[in-house]
Design goal:
By secondary structure, the chain is an alpha+beta fold. The protein has one domain: 3-Layer(aba) Sandwich (Aminopeptidase). 26% of the residues lie in helices and 31% in strands. α1 links the parallel β4 and β5. The longest helix is centred in the middle third of the chain and has 19 residues.
Length: 140
């Protein structure tokens, strides 16, 4: 699978919650496990107004934020991309932030976030506060 084809296939998904400070969507992966996609507003001061943290996780695993290696990553990531696109169309966030502590998730985001940026019309940026790796931004 080429990275250019990453968002071509998606699962059916739906919004579970749409609040002013948090949105949540879910879908079922091929193995039946639930994938949750969360967005939380991070308005702690005037500078962060319009910034949202985005996360996705697979329920029912020992490592819900880890990469599962179960062979359907492109469809899962395609669905996550579709959810992020719909979120941005509705909310028009100033920025989306993705955090990654483990090296495998950092590698994924390093490749995925620029493609997500193209999909939703936002600029990618990697940010390392105080030398900590693993913060990836999409900026409107």
């Amino acid at each position: 699978m080429k990275l250019d084809e990453l968002f071509d296939e998606q699962h059916d998904w739906e919004w579970l919650d749409k609040r002013s400070d948090a949105w949540k969507a879910h879908f079922a992966a091929d193995d039946g496990s639930a994938i949750l996609v969360h967005f939380e507003r991070t308005d702690v001061d005037e500078r962060s107004r319009g910034v949202w943290q985005a996360d996705f996780e697979r329920s029912g695993t020992d490592d819900p934020l880890g990469i599962t290696g179960q062979g359907n990553a492109s469809t899962i990531l395609g669905t996550v991309g579709d959810i992020i696109k719909d979120f941005q169309r509705n909310v028009r966030a100033k920025a989306l932030v993705f955090h990654a502590d483990e090296p495998s998730r950092q590698r994924l985001y390093r490749r995925l976030v620029p493609k997500l940026g193209q999909l939703v019309g936002m600029r990618p940026h990697q940010y390392n506060p105080e030398g900590e790796p693993g913060e990836f931004w999409l900026i409107a």
